[in-house]
């Protein structure tokens, strides 16, 4: 699809000469002899870029620039003048121009400037579309922390909404960094216990003796250092929910007491004799294969079945890559605000590297990557060099060779087909990688299959 560039100049020869040069470069050129006519075209037709003279009868180029920037801020504008000054250039850039050129125009320089400006517009448009999509997904889900449009994530959210009102025990499984704690948060937020206590315990952070005391409490004198009675997490969570993260790490003794709580809804403090009743919903999470742990004798089978009343598996990021840039956009917004930076998005090279990487650390690693990139970024977009080395190197093994002498259509065909193949047929992901619309990918692939593109 050709990009449309509007040339605004009261001198007919300059207008027609620039339009002819643009059409040789493969663009569609539109002309306007004054700013008033130009504004009507911009409001009536899709325009991708504007090149305008500064000094014209009636409305000048400066006023046109201000109107475009205030109403259509993503349309790049290049200002031309036959007698420019540094002051004119500074004013034009302050008013939103992407560059300021003097006549006669260096066409090679203009060609490079147009490509760079349109790439910037595409990036801004993509980022705006992603932000809109992100907001819509959050409104639809009614919960803002689980982000994704992939089928696996949408099914997960639907299941969370279905089970949340019950008091059933839930076991959340998945690799490290996939967001199991966020799933627990979502279950509580959708439940009728959302305003009741929600207690979180990271089981791997405590040794066996401390964990038992932490979960069930202790009485004064129960062990050295127990100088007073202490309430445990189950007692504190009464009426609400307790989240036991890394449940596969707890020892056999604590497993027995936990099994009793799940079965009988009661327990005793460490060193105590009084039985305490509790009304607590249990949500547990693990990155271990508990069935393997049962076979090894490390985890009780009866406890596993008590925990696994409802099972939720959180997919790794490599299995939901169509969510990658929604997550990137969310993290970018968060860390730009935190670091007081104005970064519009990711360059094509950076996007390609992010899409090519497998993310063994999942969402936690992606979040850290974006935070690092925001801190390192010195321009209005995150470049390949801003990404951590492990991510930036991932693009090296995913290249497309284009033979010299290939036509632009042949090169485009090879790039699109190779990208779709790399994305394992996922056209949405391929569109994200290439920075073009999904409908364009579908149309192009249909043309290639039917042979009509040659």
Question: What features would you describe in this structure?
Answer:
With 454 residues, this protein is an alpha/beta fold. The protein folds into 4 domains: 4-105, Response regulator (Rossmann fold, 3-Layer(aba) Sandwich); 151-314, Rossmann fold (3-Layer(aba) Sandwich); 329-397, Orthogonal Bundle (Helicase, Ruva Protein, domain 3), CATH 1.10.8.60; 408-450, Arc Repressor Mutant, subunit A (Orthogonal Bundle). It has 19 helices and 16 strands. The strands form 5 sheets. Strands 2-1-3-4-5 form a 5-stranded parallel beta sheet, with helices on both faces. β1 (4-8), α1 and β2 (28-32) form a beta-alpha-beta unit. α2 (35-44) packs parallel to α3, α10 crosses α12 (301-307) and α13 (324-339) packs across α15. The longest helix is centred in the first third of the chain and has 35 residues, at 107-141.
Topology:
Elements: E1 4-8, H1 12-24, E2 28-32, H2 35-44, E3 49-53, H3 61-71, E4 77-81, H4 86-94, E5 99-102, H5 107-141, H6 151-163, E6 170-173, H7 180-190, E7 198-202, H8 208-216, E8 217-218, E9 230-231, H9 233-236, E10 241-245, H10 252-264, E11 266-268, E12 275-277, E13 281-286, H11 290-295, H12 301-307, E14 310-313, H13 324-339, E15 345-346, H14 348-356, H15 362-376, E16 381-382, H16 389-392, H17 408-422, H18 427-434, H19 438-450
Parallel strand pairs: 1-2, 1-3, 3-4, 4-5, 6-13, 6-14, 7-10, 10-13, 15-16
Antiparallel strand pairs: 8-9, 11-12
């Amino acid at each position: 699809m050709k990009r449309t560039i509007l040339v605004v100049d009261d001198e007919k020869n300059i207008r027609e000469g620039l339009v002819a040069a643009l059409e040789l470069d493969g663009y569609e050129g539109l002309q306007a002899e004054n700013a008033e006519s130009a504004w009507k075209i911009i409001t009536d037709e899709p325009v991708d870029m504007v090149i305008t003279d500064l000094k014209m009868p009636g409305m000048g180029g400066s006023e046109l620039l201000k109107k475009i920037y205030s109403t259509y801020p993503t349309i790049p504008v290049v200002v031309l003048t036959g007698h420019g000054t540094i002051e004119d250039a500074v004013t034009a850039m302050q008013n939103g121009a992407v560059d300021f050129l003097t006549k006669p125009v260096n066409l090679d320089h203009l060609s490079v400037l147009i490509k760079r400006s349109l790439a910037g517009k595409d990036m801004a448009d993509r980022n705006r579309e992603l932000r809109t999509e992100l907001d819509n997904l959050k409104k639809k889900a009614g919960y803002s922390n689980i982000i994704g449009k992939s089928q696996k994530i949408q099914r997960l959210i639907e299941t969370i909404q279905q089970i949340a009102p019950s008091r059933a025990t839930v076991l959340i499984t998945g690799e490290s960094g996939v967001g199991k704690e966020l799933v627990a948060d979502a279950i509580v937020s959708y439940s009728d216990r959302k305003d009741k206590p929600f207690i979180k315990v990271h089981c791997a952070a405590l040794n066996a003796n401390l964990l038992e005391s932490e979960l069930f409490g202790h009485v004064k004198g129960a062990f050295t250092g127990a100088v007073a009675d202490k309430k445990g997490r189950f007692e504190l969570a009464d009426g609400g929910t307790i989240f036991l993260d890394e449940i596969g790490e707890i020892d056999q003794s604590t497993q027995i007491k936990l099994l009793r709580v799940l079965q009988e809804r009661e327990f005793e403090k460490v060193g105590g004799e009084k039985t305490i009743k509790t009304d607590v919903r249990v949500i547990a999470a693990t990155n271990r294969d508990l069935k393997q742990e049962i076979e090894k004798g490390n985890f009780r089978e009866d406890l596993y079945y008590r925990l696994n009343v409802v099972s939720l598996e959180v997919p790794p990021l490599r299995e939901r890559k169509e969510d990658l840039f929604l997550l990137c956009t969310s993290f970018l917004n968060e860390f730009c605000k935190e670091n007081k930076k104005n970064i519009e998005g990711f360059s094509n090279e950076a996007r390609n590297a992010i899409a090519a990487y497998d993310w063994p650390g999942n969402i936690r690693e992606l979040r850290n990557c974006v935070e690092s990139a925001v801190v390192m970024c010195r321009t209005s977009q995150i470049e390949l060099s801003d990404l951590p080395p492990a991510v930036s190197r991932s693009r090296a093994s995913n290249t497309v060779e284009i033979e010299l002498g290939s036509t632009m259509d042949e090169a485009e065909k090879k790039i699109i087909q190779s990208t779709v193949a790399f994305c394992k047929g996922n056209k949405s992901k391929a569109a994200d990688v290439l920075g073009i619309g999904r409908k364009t990918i579908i149309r192009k692939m249909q043309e290639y299959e039917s042979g009509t593109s040659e």
